[in-house]
Amino acid sequence: MPDDRTVSNAVEKLYDTYPFPPDAMSDEPPPGFNWRWSWTAAYSFCTGRKPTRQDIRILDAGCGTGVGTEYLVHLNPEARVVAVDLSSGALNVAKERCDRSGADRVEFHHLSLYDVGELDGEFDLINCVGVLHHLPDSVKGIRSLSKKLAPGGLFHIFVYAELGRWEIRLMQEAIALLQGEKRGDYTDGVKVGRDIFASLPENNPLVQREKTRWSMENHKDESFADMYVHPQEVDYNINTLFEFIEASGLEFLGFSNPQFWQLERLLGNSPDLMARASQLSERDRYRLIELLDPKTITHYEFFLGRSPFIKTDWSQEETFLSGIPELHPCIHGWPGQTLFNADYELTNLSDKDLTFLRICEANFQAQKTLGEILKESSLEVENARTLFDQRLFILSNR
Known about the structure:
The protein is of the alpha/beta class. 44% of the residues lie in helices and 15% in strands. It is built from 18 helices and 11 strands.
């Protein structure tokens, strides 16, 4: 089995050859729809409340070509951002991307995630998307990063899931077999992979899965190479994922797509099965969901945190009405009665909804409570609860 350095060198070579992700650059800030990269939105999601400070430090761990980095800078205007990556080729693209879009509050380091201890200080938010599963020793990587997380900080992670990526593993092995001694020549690997898809029958399940799930992104060779000829990859299931999380020593704060992890959407028509499932541990319920919906889950995206956290439960009406509402920082189409919420779901507002949210938008200075704004807007508590659940506004304590 290759040692860590050999594997890391192979990964570095891949991303020097095919810098990833290959998203186009712009001379303007990117559209801010990924709430997971907004400190205010992410903190509110994890704790229920708006953070008390914005002058934070952010680490983009494995920044690649800087697509996430420029979001982190533009969505967090008071933050100082540090970005690291193993690939000098990807870093060069990231620097150009951030220069062009005006993301000027970032410093870059050519650094392995194993070596982030060399960076000064701790970070309030660590972003690590699509990286840990490519490390030769992912546990060593997550522990290295966890040591850099400040108390009360958030760690945003994205790693692959095995059940929804079955066809990728099969194609990776097929390409490697046909490459033979040329394995590690990534341009040849892309050519072999393209030729396989072109040669297979139209009704082949690998072809069908590629066309229906991946082809929109894989028309670029950088994406195709990242998916099908990567030299190092670990795919997780719920059981191995939580073993991985436990190794970090941090607290699991939740998946960033909680609607997927609701068992009611799969077994809600059977009260008996729901009753049986209620006896399971939370982890076993997660495992049951992925077993029953295997093709959907291609990755896990979640937050970890380091205590102490102050969390607020707004489920009680008295507490809810005492909160101070502000417009969610990651909604799109505002102001307007048809807009996208933080999860980019289309939402239609009533006239009262619109009036209420307009008052929330101006509430940063006024600091009115939700109860006071409801009286002013004539919106019912139940309607406000719906807008809150749709993540159109956030709450803070007085």
